[in-house]
Amino acid sequence: VRSVDGSFKDATSEAIRHWVNNLDSSYHLAGAPVGPHPCPAMSVIGKETRKQAMEKWGGKPDVLVACVGSGSNALGLFHEFVRDEDVRLIGVEAAGVGLESGKHSATLATGEVGVYQGAMSYLLQDEEGQIIGPHSVAVGLEYPGVSPELSFLKDIGRAEFYTVTDQEAIDAYRRVSQLEGIIPAMEASHAIAFLEKLCPTLPDGARVVVSCSGRGDKDAEMVLEHI
Asked: Where is the Tryptophan synthase beta chain-like PALP domain (predicted)?
């Protein structure tokens, strides 16, 4: 195991760099859908969701909601349901301190198409194509690009994408911790926060699945600083 100083994008860059220099002896398999096959096809989250929905409800979910950084949370859940056009797929990006501030990670909401780490997708970039550093209170969402597959789902209108600010995610983190006794990861808190806007628009009895990925113990100190 080789550690890298920085965030996910730095680790991915170093892994790709090693891979292309050692093609005969290494293989690059990212834990996110920004690399080659088999991610996200190998994910079991969507398959488990379909199975449990059938057992609990006798049918598919109506809406799936997941946070979006590089895209692993969202595609892990969505991939099983992409061809079920009666199931809404909703991804929630990090608006940081506001889209107008420039301090955010909302790639699909504000980015432009470009090439990064060997793939074409939406990117946070300036007029000269230079990468703009992302920001989010959730470190796992701080990625300047996004999955090419999510980019495609946006382009064809199959998936919907919205944004949630740092403060909205922190509020959701606190709310779920207090009401459910579950400490969600700050990344997943973005998806949970969007329910405040989504649920009032849904018909009674709508079946909604939210990807609550990861534990929020790692975020507790940061949340206490903000409150």
From this structure: 2-214
**Residues in Cβ contact with 43 at an 8 Å cutoff, skipping those fewer than 6 apart:** 75, 76, 77, 79
Closest to 159 measured CA to CA, from 59, 60, 92: 92
Residue 97, number of CB atoms within 10 A of its CB: 16
DSSP 151-209: HHHHHTTSEEEEEEEHHHHHHHHHHHHHHHS--B-HHHHHHHHHHHHHGGGSPTT--EE
- Rg value, the chain, Cα: 18
Tell me the per-residue pLDDT of 41-86, one tens digit each, with 9 for 90 and over. Answer: 888 999 999 999 999 999 999 999 999 999 999 999 999 999 999 9
Q: Say what angle helices 166-180 and 186-198 make with each other, to 10 degrees.
A: 90
Which distant-in-sequence residues (6+ apart) come within 8 Å of 131 by Cβ? 116, 123, 124, 125, 144
CA 135 to chain centre: 14
Residue 148 CA to residue 105 CA, distance in Å, equals 16
3-class SS at 131?
A: strand
Give long-range contacts, CB 8 A cutoff, 24+ apart: 51-56: 53/207, 53/209
